[in-house]
Amino acid sequence: MNLSFQALAVLTKEPEIFAEVTEANNQLPFAPDYQPTHIQIRFDDVPCLEVVDGVAAVLVNCPVNYKPPFTAFYFDHSLALFLINGEAIVDRTHAMANLDLQLNPT
Predict the structure, then answer these.
(1) Which percentage of the chain shows pLDDT scores above 90?
(2) Do 79 and 91 meet the contact criterion of CB atoms below 8 Å apart?
């Protein structure tokens, strides 16, 4: 796993998350037809938004200009996407055909 200096600096402060990121990078990507029923988005490891069966719920209100050190997306309780300042450290979603529909339910 090649990490930028910035990503490494963030992850070394969070050994449990570093271990989870490493484990997720060793898992297979989600299948193209995979459609999670439970999506959770965490800012700085705090659950902020959840989508269950297409129904969204805000768990924590964040200021509009809030920039968390990292953002994690969990699909059915499994780490799917992990970003540090926009840099994808884990991306198990690249094969998913309907990812936009899952993240932006109508």
Answers:
(1) 59
(2) no
